[in-house]
Design brief:
about 200 residues, mainly alpha, Rossmann fold, 12 helices, 2 strands, Malic_OxRdtase, Malic_N_dom, malate dehydrogenase (decarboxylating) (NAD+) activity
């Protein structure tokens, strides 16, 4: 399943129907919501035409923007996420060498903005998603995770994220950001951590 969602030719993102998610072992590796390819296209086209940094500049009343997260912080967050998607070794080297400057970009306060815009920023799976519909199935779903050896798990229920309220699946950004800090500053191996929502 993990190889499937990492393969750009085979991956359908959120368009996998429930029956395929179980059969192909991707259940829990992608958010539980199903979006058709056309719905996913609308999300990408919205970003393509307006862009999130530009949108942040147009949202001066947004509580997160008011708290000091600038459009430049958002741009930096997206650059770092792009590097992490392509080359995690490079991502963690950059983070370790620039930890003091980058910690507020990959975690608080910038991650709050990313969490509140999670549905528009989602590109690839970075953790496991368990919903109320997965009750009784979690033990079997965890086998879809790529690593059998996990040293650290950060779990969020998506509520009360940084005082922003219930962000649901968007709260996964908190688990991801915290584990990125554990890897860069605590010496955990990136393959041996598991973010969960």
């Amino acid at each position: 399943g993990r190889n499937l969602v990492s393969d750009p030719i085979s991956n359908k993102g959120l368009a996998f129907p429930l029956s395929e998610r179980d059969r192909l072992s991707v259940r829990g590796l992608v958010p539980p919501r199903i979006l058709s390819i056309q719905e996913q296209e609308r999300v990408i086209m919205d970003e393509y035409t307006r862009g999130w940094a530009a949108r942040a500049e147009q949202e001066p009343e947004d509580e997160i923007i008011k708290s000091g997260v600038s459009p430049d912080n958002i741009r930096k967050w997206k650059v770092l996420q792009s590097v992490q998607d392509r080359n995690e070794t490079l991502f963690y080297r950059i983070l370790m060498d620039n930890f003091q400057d980058m910690a507020p970009i990959i975690y608080t306060p910038t991650v709050g903005w990313a969490c509140s815009h999670f549905s528009q920023l989602y590109r690839r799976p970075r953790g496991m998603y368990f919903s109320h519909g997965d009750r009784g199935e979690m033990a079997s779903m965890v086998y879809n995770w790529e690593s059998d050896e996990v040293d650290a798990v950060v779990i969020t229920d998506g509520s009360r994220i940084l005082g922003l309220g219930d962000l649901g699946l968007g709260g996964l950004g908190i688990s991801i950001g915290k584990l990125d800090l554990y890897v860069a500053a605590g010496g955990f191996h990136p393959r041996r951590v598991l973010p969960v929502v």
